[in-house]
Specification:
The complex is a heterodimer of chains A (about 400) and B (about 400). By secondary structure, chain A is an all-alpha fold. Chain A is built from 16 helices and no strands. The longest helix of chain A has 30 residues, at about 375-405. Chain A starts with 9 loop residues before the first helix and ends in a 5-residue tail after the last helix. Chain B has 13 helices and 8 strands. The radius of gyration of chain B is 30 Å and the shape is globular. The relative contact order of chain B is 0.12. In chain B, the strands form 3 sheets. In chain B, strands 1-2-3-8 form a 4-stranded antiparallel beta sheet. Chain B has a two-stranded antiparallel sheet with strand order 4-5. Chain B has a two-stranded antiparallel ribbon with strand order 6-7. In chain B, a hairpin with a 2-residue loop joins strand 2 (about 175) and strand 3. Chain B has 3 domains: about 5-60; about 90-185 and about 250-395, MetI-like (MetI-like fold, Orthogonal Bundle); about 185-250. Chain B is α+β, with helices and mostly antiparallel strands. Classes of the chains: A mainly alpha (about 400), B alpha+beta (about 400). At the A-B interface, helix 2, helix 9, helix 10, helix 14 and helix 15 of A face helix 3, helix 5, helix 6, helix 12 and helix 13 of B.
Chain lengths: ~400, ~400
């Protein structure tokens, strides 16, 4: 589409890209008209005809569900903690990459770096700003402000934590700390509240994150099992993967909702949210296994032979040589699967009655204040914006990561 | 060296060579079996534990574990299907399977067409067309399907479509209202019509083969697509007239529509959502496949002065489809499984029939186990078809 022409200018651009031939011109006029109509409709819906009061009033319900008031502070602390942790990790990793020579630091001014960050994150930032504007209390504003500061501080401290000066004990402590923070925050929130009362978008995010973390090791094990030279292990893994992949997630959720209780002793019967997490984990693990298997197949034989030649044990061949390359090669597919898992968390609402965002979205227009006004369009548009922002940001970041890791580039 | 060997052998006692055999716990062959037995043992133990709990719990609550419920009366109606109120669960499930197949076939055909068009449009040299296609793909792919399904029913059908009194009549061919969409249909449609269609397909296939053999001999343009389509049409029309079938147009009859066939709101909404959503995924696959076709192919087409359409139709697309078949087949499987979301808006596919019959007191575990088996069977048949297509289209190398 890029033209290597000598002349340029608006007229030539228009002729080349819009009116190349009579057919092309006709297409331009028809689809131009459709685009203009769509843009007009969207703008008039957002700014004129849409009645967004319903979102403003129910914002808390849509984002947090019936999360108990008394413990909202814990959520705020968690957000701040995660922001600081994320900033710290970014600084830490960046410093390590610079030291190992994988990323060059020259030519990166502060302004350039901030510009890059804005180019990457303007979309979620804009949506967060929209949510803040819609919120009627100062709490979210304060939380986001402190979280931003915390992230910046973490980013500033991060590079120092990776210095070789710290010695083995020091850097070991750093790694333990990096692992412990999210776990600590998880227990900080969950022990006080439990996650059965969670709802809204928070529940969608929570279900997705839990299932992502849990499905990963299982997926790796299943992939290794399917590629194993041991026939019985292979049969077990293959059967599991194919059975799960053949059945719709929706039916699995229905089954778990009405029948999981039969398969465990009554004392162990899990709550609905736990059931959802179990199903999402078991389901995604099967798909993850297939993706990782593809990655394992993409590692050249020479790598394993080289690992054998230097005398690594089978476990070390796998852990140090094969798996890192295999996982790196399929990062885009893995993130694609995680995006689809995140979108699928809406099914937990339909199949199990969990009060996640989509359920709130369809329930809210039936409230007494809004009944019979046909406001479902507004609430669904809002929910779509939420899901779209998170998924789109994730897929863009995955493309960026893919480029940085140089997948497919030698 | 050779001279010393006998002496060396003599120096090493025979018993020593025997005793250096690998011990059992380091023998790879033994270890392999131990690992396998441990894994299988754990799996079997898990299954036995789950099954034992299941037997205990069902016995405690007096819930049957067999498939006897299939003969119980279903006790519910399925809109759009002739199912008497005292029909057995078995028959309701059969209708559910038919409904799943209906939405799947319709959805696959429509999503393939739309997806291919959008995929080509994304690579168009026309700026507006390619941008519009990009916006469509990026907007739809990142939103949950469930949201489209609910929006299809609650926003499009119940919100945008008019009431039956003010229904949109599109030239007498379709009547659109919030009670559903009515379109023309064949009168007495059934297996007779299906048989004529099958004969038409065979005729089209034969004609296409004949045309390509003519083309091989004489070098004339094959135009096998046009010829095959024509043959199908001729056979279909002739058969239709010969057997005396007719069609009916939909018309408004007070507060309902008569004639034609009425597409249920739930079917329409599910169809709308599945097609919009799956087409965006297929479009990405088609785009990637077109880009994966060797650049030289397009340049060669330009060099022999093919038009833009000919270049696409005769040179690029046949090769792109070859690449696209396996991933598109995966999308078909996804569409079939995703059609279970129809249960959320009251479309009686396998899932909703299963859910309803569980609600009416059938045992949950056998019902859902049966449901999963049905889906797995449909998926298997589909993937076999896709694999056959793939094998026929695949490049035969050496």
């Amino acid at each position: 589409m890029s033209s290597a022409a000598h002349r340029s200018g608006p007229t030539i651009w228009v002729r080349r890209n819009l009116f190349r031939s009579p057919v092309d011109g006709a297409l331009t006029i028809v689809f131009g008209a459709i685009s203009l109509w769509l843009i007009y409709k969207t703008i008039s819906f957002v700014f004129v005809t849409g009645r967004w009061d319903i979102i403003r009033v129910n914002l808390r319900l849509m984002m947090l569900g019936r999360f108990p008031d008394a413990h909202v502070l814990r959520l705020a602390v968690t957000v701040v903690g995660l922001a600081a942790w994320g900033g710290f990790l970014a600084g830490f990793i960046h410093a390590r990459q610079v030291r190992s020579g994988r990323v060059s630091e020259d030519g990166q001014t502060t302004i350039g770096r901030v510009g890059g960050l804005v180019a990457r994150l303007w979309l979620p930032a804009l949506v967060v700003l929209l949510l803040l504007v819609l919120s009627s209390t100062p709490g979210p504003w304060i939380t986001v402000a402190i979280a931003t500061v915390a992230a910046l501080i973490g980013r500033a401290i991060g590079p120092f934590a990776g210095r070789p000066k710290l010695g083995p004990v020091g850097s070991g402590l750093v790694f333990v700390g990096i692992g412990a923070v999210p776990v600590g925050l998880y227990f900080y929130v969950v022990t006080a509240v439990g996650f059965d009362d969670w709802g809204g978008f928070l529940l969608n995010l929570f279900l997705a994150v839990c299932a992502i973390v849990l499905c990963f090791p299982l997926g790796v094990l299943l992939a290794l099992g399917r590629r194993s030279t041991l026939p019985l292990v292979r049969v077990v893994s293959t059967t599991y993967i194919e059975l799960v992949r053949g059945a719709p997630l929706f039916v699995l959720l229905l089954l778990a909702n009405s029948a999981l209780g039969f398969f465990v002793p009554n004392s162990l019967a899990p709550s609905t949210s736990t059931r959802a997490i179990i199903v999402f984990t078991l389901f995604t693990a099967a798909y993850m296994a297939e993706i990782i298997r593809g990655g394992l197949q993409s590692v050249p034989r020479g790598q394993i032979e080289a690992a054998k030649a230097v005398g690594l044990s089978p476990a070390r061949q796998m852990g140090y040589i094969v798996l890192p390359q295999a996982l790196r090669n399929v990062i885009p597919a893995q993130i694609g699967q995680l995006i689809s898992l995140f979108k699928d968390t809406t099914l937990a609402g339909i199949a199990m009655g969990l009060f996640e965002l989509l359920q709130v979205t369809t329930a809210v227009p039936a409230q007494e204040a809004f009944r019979g006004q046909g406001l479902i369009g507004e609430t669904i548009a809002f929910a779509a914006l939420m899901f779209w922002t998170v998924s789109y940001t994730m897929s863009r970041e995955s493309q960026r990561l893919e480029k940085r890791l140089g997948v497919g580039v030698r | 060296m050779d001279r010393r060997r006998p002496a060396l052998l003599a120096a090493v006692p025979l018993t020593a060579t025997l005793s250096t055999r690998t011990p059992l716990w380091r023998d790879v062959r033994v270890l392999k079996w131990v690992v396998q037995l441990v894994v299988v043992g754990l799996v079997v133990a898990l299954i036995i534990w789950l099954y034992g709990n299941y037997v205990d719990n069902t016995a405690e609550q007096n819930i049957p574990t067999d498939f006897g419920f299939l003969d119980n009366p279903a006790n519910f109606q399925i809109t759009g299907n002739e199912l008497s109120a005292n029909a057995a669960v078995r028959q309701a499930l059969y209708q559910g399977v038919l409904n799943t197949l209906r939405i799947s076939v319709a959805g696959i055909v429509a999503a393939t067409l739309l997806g291919t068009l959008v995929g080509i449009a994304r690579l168009s040299s026309n700026w507006i067309v390619s941008k519009l296609a990009t916006v469509y793909v990026e907007a739809v792919r990142n939103v949950p399907l469930a949201l489209f399904v609910l929006a299809g029913l609650l926003v499009v059908v119940l919100g945008v479509f008019p009431t039956i009194q003010e229904a949109w009549e599109l030239g007498g061919l379709a009547i659109i209202s919030n009670r559903g969409v009515a379109v023309p249909w064949f009168l007495g449609a059934g297996f007779g019509l299906l048989a004529i269609g099958a004969v038409g397909v065979v005729a089209a296939w034969l004609v296409a083969r004949w045309r390509s053999s003519v083309s091989d001999r004489t070098g004339a343009l094959p135009r096998s697509g046009l010829w095959a389509g024509g043959a199908f049409l001729v056979v279909f029309v002739v058969g239709w007239v010969a057997f005396g079938y007719e069609w009916t147009l939909p018309r408004l009859d007070g507060r309902r529509t008569a004639g034609g066939i009425r597409i249920d709101p739930s079917f329409f909404a599910l169809f709308f959502a599945l097609v919009i959503y799956t087409a965006s995924h297929i479009a990405e696959i088609v785009r990637g496949s077109i880009q994966a076709v060797d650049r030289g192919q397009g340049e060669a087409a330009d060099a022999v002065a093919l038009s833009g359409f000919q270049r696409m139709w005769y040179v690029i697309l046949p090769q792109a489809f070859r690449i696209a078949i396996p991933p598109v087949g995966n999308q078909y499987l996804n569409l079939i499984k995703n059609s279970s979301l129809g249960a959320a808006i009251g479309y009686y596919d396998i899932t909703l029939v299963a859910q309803t019959t569980v609600g009416n007191g059938s045992p949950a575990v056998p019902v859902f186990a049966l449901t999963m088996v049905l889906y797995i069977c449909i998926s298997l048949v589909t993937s076999v078809i896709v694999n056959i297509a793939n094998r026929r289209m695949a490049l035969v190398e050496r």
